[in-house]
Amino acid sequence: MRPTTLLAVLTAVVLLEAGLNSEAQDRRGAALERRFQELDTSGDGKLSRAELGDAQQHASWDRDQDGFVTQAEVREFMSSIRRAQSLLAAAPPATVAEGIDVDARPSAPPAAVPVANSRAFAHLAFARDWVPGTKDGAGERMTGTETVRLLAHGGRLFAATGCWMDLPYGRRDAGQPPWTGPQILVKDSAQAAWRVDVSWPMARRVTAILSTRFVTDGEGQALDPPVNLLVAGPISSRLKNTSVWSRDDASGTWAESVVLEDVEGGVRSFCTHRDRVTGVQSLFGGLASGAVCRAVYDPSVPGRLRWDRTPELSGTGRVMCLAEANGVLYAAGGIRNETPLSGGLFRRVDGASPRWELVWRWPHRIVDRGDEPEILRGLTAVPDPLRCGQEVLLGTCSYPGVIYRIDPARGFAATTELDIRKYFAKAFGVPALRGPCLSAYNDFLPAADPDTGESVHLLGVWILHPAGQGTPEGASAWYLVRHGDGTYSHGRVFDPAHPVPNPPRGLLAARTLAISPFPEDKGRVLDAGGFDCARIESRDTAWIYRGEIAAQTAKAGSQGRCFGSSGGVELGSVGTGGAKSSG
Fold first, then answer.
1. If 450 and its partner were Cys, which of 24, 384, 508, 523 is the partner (CB 3.0–4.6 Å)?
2. Domain extent listing, the chain
């Protein structure tokens, strides 16, 4: 039997044993020992990464991080699964919303690519602003395989990084620099260099970060003054608990608040919401383990966040995004299987005993490895282009590579607003594009053109240029600009001084975008960051670029019916980017 097949069998045994009674677990324990011995080709009673054959699984099971997996460590992993299952099962059951067809198919993509005539945020001159593998002014090493999020807070710009797939580094091989883990970096002014704010050596990635303002305490009493808080969620299978860390802006230190004990993974998304019945404002965390948990502001507890120990929602795949629209909180959990409540778009019904209802399940494909075809990303509320004063939800799915507009006022009818591959195929001048199509890794970023005042939303994408690796076009990253009427334009992240960075893979993906918070930039600077390891071992591939808007590059328009729409143009006028320094 091949090592990969043996690993699959061993993994299945692990997961099965986690859900069995004691007698059945004894039987499965014997099977576990047999499979373990078959993989242990050296006969030393432990599995190296080469013997296990799966680096990610090895990192999850190697509890003491000594580079080897023992049977005791595998059993501890199984015990943690059982503990997590017990905690997550305590969540109140969700229901299917009455009178709504939760499996309604979205509309077909528009026959013609909906291209805007506005040039807002489409022509920027980018330059590299940060290089991983270097040291900051205090001598602290800055690392990362991915820049996961850029975010303004308290007049500064923060960056969350990840070290996913930096596996040789994580093994602490001889001669390697000290392992930093994922980090929060901070930039204090437009001209300042990036520096380390905090590192988490036991984590693998910072998957969620949010700057929020609390206006009430846990009893619904107003806070005077309101409290601004920066919160982050480092994630790793090596962390025993699911925790959130919050920053004390006065001291610059971070404090941990435990969300769920003995539940590994971490928080994948954040959103604040004020209950329309109780008046209490809460921070909600969407968990990688498929749950939604709630915290209130409490200055007397560590991290100033007091978490309910029972999730409000559980049983879904990764909760990739949370958003509030028209005063209602929504959560998008990955669709684990064809059971209706195993995932989809859920809405919260506020009250003293809140509950969650399933309102829509996007088209999906259940796969054995990975969950990308099962999840929705970037959930964001935007003004309804057809009805003034109302909001609709935007979300993206890499399968089949589209942007959906979901309308709560029409029974959550979903409109396929854009076929992303079709858009870029036309823009690049090719009949069709193949390959990855991830977009809106975090959300759709609201922005206003500094010259015209036009309101737009920006989202990064991972799309492969047909020029291929090793070329300036293929090494660039790309992003989309959504205009108020649902038309689109695009931009290119490219520094002519570094035409092929991260050879041979390039920038690869724009995971995150942020408008510079610094007064001297006057809203004319767009910061971008990203890379996507795509399960390929990587080292110091994260990036941050700074893009400046030239004066009077955009023409107002494309704002939608409530804003004065001016229609779109043929895609040919958008251009293909080519070797220009901005797209």
1. 523
2. 3-88, 95-573
DSSP code for 138:
T
What is each CA distance from 569 to 67, 384, 430, 542, 558, in whole angstroms?
A: 57, 21, 19, 35, 10
The pTM (predicted TM-score) of the whole model is: 0.87
Q: Which amino acid is at 430?
A: V
Tokens for 425, please give them.
Answer: 């195929």
Contacts of 419 (CB under 8 A, 6+ apart): 109, 110, 113, 400, 401, 402
Q: Determine contact, residues 457/480, Cβ cutoff 8 Å.
A: no
Among residues 566, 396, 570, the alpha carbon closest in space to that of 479 is found at 396
pLDDT in tens, 122-179: 999 999 999 999 999 999 999 999 999 999 999 999 999 999 998 765 555 556 777 8
**pLDDT grade for 56, boundaries at 50, 70 and 90:** low
**Which has the higher per-residue pLDDT, 565 or 284?**
284
The sign of the torsion formed by the CA atoms of 16, 17, 21, 25 equals positive
The architecture CATH gives domain 3-88: Orthogonal Bundle (1.10)
Fold of domain 95-573: Methylamine Dehydrogenase; Chain H (2.130.10)
Which string of DSSP letters, residue by residue, matches 427-496? HHT-S---S--EE-SS-PEEEE-TTT--EEEEEEEE---TT-TTSTTTT-EEEEEEETTS-EEEEEE--T
Measured CA to CA in angstroms, residue 36 lies from 18, 48, 72, 554 at distances of: 17, 12, 11, 62
| Residue 328 to residue 390: CA distance in whole angstroms | 12
Q: How far is CA 224 from each of CA 215, 216, 227, 376, rounded to the nearest angstrom?
A: 8, 9, 8, 37
If you search the block for the tokens 């206006």, which residue do you land on?
A: 215
Residue 349 has pLDDT above 50, yes or no: yes
Give the rounded distance of the alpha carbon of 554 from its chain centre: 30
Q: Taking a C-beta distance cutoff of 8 angstroms, is the pair 120, 481 a contact?
A: yes
